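Hi Y.,

Following your request, here is the sequence exactly as I used it, all 203 residues.
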Amino acid sequence: MMKQVINKIKCVVIDDEKEACDRLEALLGKISSLDLIAKETNADSGIKTIIELSPEIVFLDVEMPNKSGFDVVREVHETGLQPTFIFVTGYNQYAIKAIRNAAFDYLLKPIDIDELKEAVNRFVRTQKEKQKILLPAKLKSLYKLTDREIEIIKLLLEGKSSQQIAAKLFISKHTVDTHRRNILKKINIKSTTELIPILRNHS
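Below is the corresponding structure, written out as tokens. Let me know if you'd prefer a different format.
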């Protein structure tokens, strides 16, 4: 039996203080869903790394020499990339400005592991909500799915069983199972659990 491949969340740390970088690396290593792919101690090299590696989350210091974290956010957005930025700093007066600059979250140093985990969990929840909205529409155009098949996909993404879907849509379980087989055949996958990786590939 083949093991299921779990796609980890790619993240980058940018902080001009090496000790802060190393500490955050140690904390991130305790969260199994994350994959730290780079650490940078310079804003410009951090921007370059984001462009080259396209991380999903960037843990970003606010106060750095030459360029601030806000400058990094602006320059990255100008390239068209939209990673999730989580600001990390020891200065809480930046909180309001951070939110206004589209930071997903804001963590104060020294970082608490529970607060870090909650920020990551909130990111995961947000991504799942986006997937529920985007996935059906993308699949409909790509694989010529019917409106009923899209309805069923949405409910499958909510974790509903065939029996629950049947009750909600007022159709038989047999009909739901038939739609599920047709969906798998059209998309050329073996199970509905493969829908999320497909979204990642087309996002």
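Residues 1-5 have pLDDT under 50 and may be disordered.

Thanks again,
Q.
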